[in-house]
Amino acid sequence: MELGLIGLGRMGGNMRERIRRAGHTVIGYDRNPDLADVDSLPELVDKLQAPRVVWVMVPAGEPTRATVEELSDLLSPGDVVVDGGNSRWTDDEKHAEALAAKGIGFVDCGVSGGVWGLENGYALMYGGTDEDVAKVQPVFDALKPEGEFGSVHAGKVGAGHFAKMVHNGIEYAMMQAFAEGWELLEAVDSVTDVREVFRSWREGTVIRSWLLDLAVNALDEDEHLGGLRGYAQDSGEGRWTVEAAIDHAVPLPAITASLFARFASRQEDSPSMKMIAALRNQFGGHAVTAVSDHKGADAPGADVTPPAV
Fold first, then answer.
1. Is 6 in the same domain as 152?
2. Which of 229, 231, 227, 202 is nearest to 216 (CA)?
């Protein structure tokens, strides 16, 4: 089949290549002319035979909204737009409604696989009507991993991105657990080879996983992660997961804690920890570390003790 693909960055470019390897025609557009097959969205649409399928793979939010709006003026009844970015499911519902008014179908698709997807395949979670999904199915089949699993029609419009959002929330919690376990192992004197402990877990344990494999890869590159700053960004899905949990009164303590841990990572000097230190000093006389010395409590002048009462 033919596919129009908008957004040819690291992920979109690899998806184009994997779809082409499966024997399909992909016409790609990107703002970077070195990556694009055509010079504009109108040219992309003109080169596709009706009924057209156009896959949008651009950043969530305004870039996706603007692209879908432009496509709504270029496509014809019976065509289908697929949003394969990390859009919020509530945006999907709005896009589907606006496109339906012009007879254009809409499918939302959560895509997981990152830079490994070209060779390993992409896990796909998609939402939409059976009719619209059927028009995209050959592309889904080309992108998914080999075998029985890795692709699911999750439900109606919005279900694909909602499922991907929950997937990413679980991912947050799993990564946080690995990170905390690694930090504890590094903190004790009795464990002399933390990297090999992690490597040993790759077989025969209940926590073996691709994330564990990637953790070992990272430790092979930098055994104690000394070259990295302890800062972790969040792309939005973790926040949306927690917000959805609040809306539906579903307790998510692990996922919520992992999201807040990322926020804590951005604080070079945690304000809340200052208050905790001050309170411990007030009620228990516990030593606090002065701002003038943040290299360690053993340095001269680092400990500030309460006055005698």
1. yes
2. 202
Domain check: are 15 and 123 in the same one? yes
Q: How far apart are CA 298 and CA 280, in angstroms?
A: 18
Give per-residue pLDDT as tens, 220-238.
Answer: 999 998 888 887 777 788 8
d(CA 159, CA 169): 15
Residues 206 and 220 in one domain: yes
Please choose, from the candidates 277, 261, 95, the residue with its C-alpha nearest in 3D space to the C-alpha of residue 178. Answer: 261
Q: What percent of the chain has pLDDT over 90?
A: 74
Q: Flag whether 309 is in a domain.
A: no
User: Could you list the active site residues?
Assistant: 164, 171
- Domain span including residue 276: 271-304
In a shared domain, residues 220 and 284: no
**AA identity, residue 27:** I
Half-sphere exposure of residue 150: CA atoms within 13 angstroms, side-chain side: 16
DSSP SS3 for 230: coil
- Establish how many alpha carbons lie within 13 A of residue 231's alpha carbon, considering only the half-sphere containing its beta carbon: 8
pLDDT over 90 (residue 21): yes
Domain shared by 205 and 286, yes or no: no
What is the value of pTM for the model shown?
0.84
Digit-coded pLDDT (tens) for 198-221: 999 999 999 999 999 999 999 999
Round to whole Å and give the CA distance between 294 and 258. 26
Peptide bond preceding 307 in cis form (omega within 30 of 0): no
Average pLDDT, the chain: 89
Distance CA 267, CA 279 (A): 20
Domain count, the chain: 3
Q: Clarify whether residues 173 and 289 are in a common domain.
A: no
